[in-house]
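User: I've been going back and forth on whether these two constructs are worth ordering. Before I decide, could you fold them both?

Assistant: Sure. I'll take them in the order you sent them. The first construct and its structure tokens:
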Amino acid sequence: MKIIKYLPIAMLLFLASCNNNEMKISRADKTIVSESMDQSPIYITKNSDGTINLNEKNRIGNTDWIFSIESSLPIGAVLPDVQRLITKKYTKGMHPDSKQVYFLYLDTVANQMAYLPINGFEFVTDKPIDSVSIHFEKNISTEKFIQELVKVATADTLAPKIPVYIY
């Protein structure tokens, strides 16, 4: 009988101790790449105090790296960490890494997860030289940034390095 008496209290404490973190990823209306088989997720989220939290402990060499970035974060604050990790991934070492790097987003039309390959982009932190190039202000949200890149990208046109200016 005592078990029945204390069971609701124990359940309440158990449920209250669960930490339910939810991450809102970016959304766009087109799928560039629909699947990635061998992947390592890298999460970039915002802490309660507004600072950026980079969880890179899941990354494995010679796998596709999937950056899951909270959509409200400004791209200018996130991009230095992304560039640092990409440089580390492709630095010549003992084992060459031929896998891709992607931004994760939700395709709202197909209602599925999609991947934006970012190997075809060269992120430049200077002001653009011409008005034809792709450019963004550094405080634009990650969601808006990904939406605009999805508009200009297709899976087969990202072979050359396309300069993307963020200033």
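The second construct, handled the same way:
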Amino acid sequence: MKKYIIFGILILLVLFIGCTTQDLEVTCNPPYIKVGNSCCLDQNGNNICDKDEASEMQDRVEQDIVDNELPSSSGVIIKNGRGSVGGFNNRETINYAGDLTLLVGGDGNIVTISKKTNLIKLTLGGSNNMVRLSSNHDSVEIIKGGYNNKIEYYD
């Protein structure tokens, strides 16, 4: 009888131990950082997820938008020398005559900046975006975030 009781206790102990959940420690290798129970990309090492940086930058640009601004149907918005391109897979050419600070976010956008635009600052967020700049834009301040964004120069 004692054997059955001991055997029963062992079975219950095995079931109890086997059914308890264990918290697994998440380890993120650079350039990824731990956020909660997962990892996210942080290519510039500032401890902010790149996807969050892109949306934060977009929010800052959108704060400058006023009611009388008319965005183009193509997704380019420019107001008071600040502009943004968002959305997905847009093909844009910006012919803005003046100083421009530009944010390119979203995914898969290709933006060409005309030679007459005095581009001051370019911020890339999102992923798989490409910005084409003429060679006279070689002194532009460029901030690259996001993933797989590219800059191409043309004459």
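Notes on the second construct follow. Residues 10 and 146 are 54 Å apart (CA to CA). The two ends are 93 Å apart (CA to CA).
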